[in-house]
Model the fold of this input.
Amino acid sequence: MEVVSGRSGDGGGAVKEEGRSESGADDHDHEHGGGKEENIAIMKLPTLTTMERSIVGTATIAPSSIPSNQVDHELESARAEMGEVREENQRLKMYLDRITKEYQTLQVRFQNMKHQRDIVEESELVSLSLGRYQNYQKKDEPIITKPIITRPWKYEENKQDLSLGLDCKFESSSKSGGSTSNEPLPNSSPINSSEEPKGESGETRSQSDKALKTLRNSADDGHENSTPPKKARVCVRARCDTLTLNDGCQWRKYGQKVAKGNPCPRAYYRCTVAPLCPVRKQVQRCVHDMSILITTYEGTHNHPLPISATAMASTTSAAASMLLSGSSSSQSGPASATADLHGLNYYLSDSSKSKQFYLPNSSLSSSLSCPTITLDLTSIPSSQYLNRFLTSSSDYMNPPRFSSSNSNTLNFSSSESNTISWTNNTNFLSYGTTQPYKAINLGRQPPLMENSYQSYMQKSNPIISTPPQHNSLPADTIAAATKAITADPNFQSALAAALTSIIGQAGTQGNQTTGVANAGGENLSQKMKWGDLFPTISSALPSSSSKVNGCASSFLKKTQATNAVQPGNLMFLPPSLPFSTTKSTSASPRDNGDNTN
DNA sequence: CGAATTTGACCCGCGC
DNA sequence: GCGCGGGTCAAATTCG
Done:
C-alpha cells in the first residue's frame, strides 16, 4: 500500500532522472508546468522512456485504495529530489570542467618547467646516484645542497636513473668491473677471446686470472688514471628473518667468506637481472644481534630494474645522496660535529679509521675506505615490513637511522628506545610485497627467494619465538621527524627519491605513458590498493627451505649435522661461542651464531 | 640436465 | 717482503 506506492514513486523518480538527463531540459519546464498530479503522468508520457512509462504507469494504476493526495505528495517530493539531483549534477559537471581546465593548465606549466629544468639541472640526477660525489662536485658544487623534492616533473627524466637504482654513473673504474655500466665486462672483451682454450689446469687458471687482472686494469686505465675512486656503498641494516633482504633484484651467490670478527659468513651476490650487471651485494648477519641482517650494495645496475627492486634501489640511492650531501658538508677534514636536528641526532664525523657506528666489532677492510652509508632499519621488526618502509613515503615520517660510516656518519636517529612498530603505522602506500612481485613482475622469480628461515626453524623448533614486537612510535618522534624532513634538505632528498620511486613504480605498473600528474595521484591510489591487496614478503613466499644459505643455513646445517641435536630449544646451542656474551632478547638461535667459519 | 649454490684456492691491497 | 684478510673465481656439488 503505502510502501508499494512509495517505492514506485522513488523508483520512478530515479529512473526519470536518469532518462531525463538524456532527454534534455525541456522536461524541466514541462514538469513545472504540470497541474494535477494524476495528469502529470499522462502528460509526461510522450517524453518518458519506456521504463518510465511502465513505472509511472505502475504508480498510476496503483490500487485505488491509495489516496490520490498521497500519490501527489510523493510524486512532488520525488520531483523535488530530481531537481536537487539535477542541480548537483550540474555542479559536478562544473567541477569537472574546472578541474579539467586546471589540469590542462598545470600540464602546460609542467611542460614549460620541465623544459627549463632539463636545461638547468641536468646534473642533479647525480643526487640519486651512488658514487663519489666529489667528481660531480667539481663540476657543480652548489647542486649539493639543492633538494630535489620539489621536482616531480623530473620523473620522466629520472625514471631511468631511478630504475637503475644504485647508479654510480661516474664511478669510472673498479675492481669488480664496475666501470661504466654499458661497457662490456672483461668476459666479453676481445682479449678474452684471445685467451687460451680451457682445459689446462693450474697454469691456465693463473693465466686466465692474470688476463682478467689485465683486463680489469686496462679497463680501469681506460677511465681513470692511477687511483680509481672507491665505490660508494650503501649498507642496509635491518631486522630480517630471511636469508637476505628481498630487494626485488635477482642475485646469484658467487662466494662466501668468513670475515674476521664475525663468525657468520659473509655471502657475496651479484646481480643477475642482466648478465653483465656489475652490482654486487654482501650479506652478513650482525655479530651482536643475528636478527639483524647487514646488506651492503655496491655498483651500478646497467639495466632497468624490476619494479620490485626500484624501491630499495631508490632508497639506497637516497641514502647515498644523503651521504654525499653530508660528506660535502663535512668534507673539510677529520673533524666531527654533532647537532641536534629537531630532536633527531644528527651526527657527522669524518674519521676514516673509526669503526662503523652501527657495525660494532666488524672489521674494517680496505674496501671500507670507500664511502659507505648505513641505513639502519633495525627498528623495523622484520623484513616483512622493510618493503613498506622502502616503498611508503609516509613511512619516512618515521625516519630510520641513517648513518654513514668511515668518512661520514649521518645519524638521523631518534633514540634507540623509539623503535617503530610498523604494524601500527598506516602503510597506506605500501605495495612492495611478494605477491605483487609475482603478479606484476614479468620476469621470473628471483632465484634466491628469501625464505623465512625463521619459519623454517620454527618448524624444527616451535619454541623459538619471533623477535619481540617493538613499541609504537611516540607522537613526538613523528613530530620531530616531520620537522627534520621539512628542515633538512637531505631528508627531503631522500623523501623525494622515495616518492619518485613510488611514482615511478606506479607508472611502470600502470600506464607508462601516463602523465606525471596522473602518476603522482592516480597511481598512488593504485598503490594504495595494491598495498591493501597484497600481503608482505616472506610469509607468502613459496617454500624454498631447501635453499637456505648464509649464516642461518650454514648454522642449521652444521648444527643439525654435527650436534647430536636434542629436540627442543637447545638444538641450536653450540657448546661454545666466541661471542657467547651476546645479549639475547629472544630465544632465536641466531644469537648462537655460526662459529663454523 | 641445466641452473644455482657451495667451497677451496687464488689474487690483491694493506699494514707491519 | 711477508702475512693477513677481503674479494673473486671456478670446479664440484646440489637442486629442481
Notes: Chain A has a mean pLDDT of 48. The beta strands of chain A are 233-239, 251-258, 265-271, 280-285, 292-298, 337-341, 344-348, 372-377, 401-405. The radius of gyration of chain A is 32 Å. Residues 175, 205-206, 209-210, 212-213, 252-256, 365-367, 447-448, 547, 549 of chain A lie near DNA strand B (CB under 10 Å from a C1').
